[in-house]
Design goal:
The protein has 5 helices and 28 strands. The strands form 3 sheets. It has an 11-stranded mixed sheet with strand order 1-4-7-10-13-16-19-22-25-27-28. The protein is of the alpha/beta class. Helix content is about 20%, strand content about 25%. It folds into 2 domains: about 140 residues, Hexapeptide repeat proteins (UDP N-Acetylglucosamine Acyltransferase, domain 1); about 80 residues, Up-down Bundle (Udp N-acetylglucosamine O-acyltransferase, Domain 2), CATH 1.20.1180.
Length: about 280
Amino acid sequence: MAIHPTAIVDRSAEIDASAEIGAYVVVERDVRVGPGSRVYPHAYLAEGTTLGEGCQIHPFAVIGHLPQDVKYGGDPTYTQVGDGTIVREHATIHRGTMPGSTTTVGRGCYIMAGGHVGHNCIVGDQVTIANNALLAGHVEVGDRAFISGNVVLHQFMRIGELAMIGGGTALAQDVPPFMLVRFPQVILGPNVVGLRRAGFSAVERQEIRHCYRLLYHSGLPFPRAVDQVAQLVRTEPGRRLLAFLRSPSKRGFLPYRAWGGGRQAVSLAEADHEL
């Protein structure tokens, strides 16, 4: 175990023998640091934080500190960071706010400098949160989603798996899985590059494209479009999309919007071609 002599580590902390704790790091009580994890100088691990195996916590990152919630009453709450997740400089992840609750970041995530994950967020596996992106409390982000720089997400909203949110976008409603969103609040179509890189077959990509057209270009009210999607889907990704659309939503779903005064005919054509 490599713990720098200037680090302040509570006696109750459980640090694996293969982990490394850098200079001037603060590790509070009831913290667990998994095998092979590295905590760089000046990072702060607050009470009730658990780091998995092979994590990296970079300088001045703060993990598990008090939630930014005026209702927080000081009860024990927790923060869980999955194996292989990297948290870069000045990023913050806050513990849960309700008694006994947990903020969860999955495996293999990359939270870039200045990123913020608010209390009680649930972030899936292999999620990228780019520089200065801000997740308010109770946000849910699906596996392999990409949240670009300076994105702002309203509390209680959801981002579906493999969705990609373009830089500078502020969102207050749910984004279905596999969709690409552009500033200011425009769903351009399926996340073509992400789907290809994730190994989705041509049949799966085509089905997602058809679902997108039903949801955003059929002219049907959204609930009726979801019913049509239910009749269409045959693949596993399509069923996951449908499950997301039918699951409870506290914020509703992001509607299609024209951008720059026109419809998205060019973007849709490009999506048809690339899928």
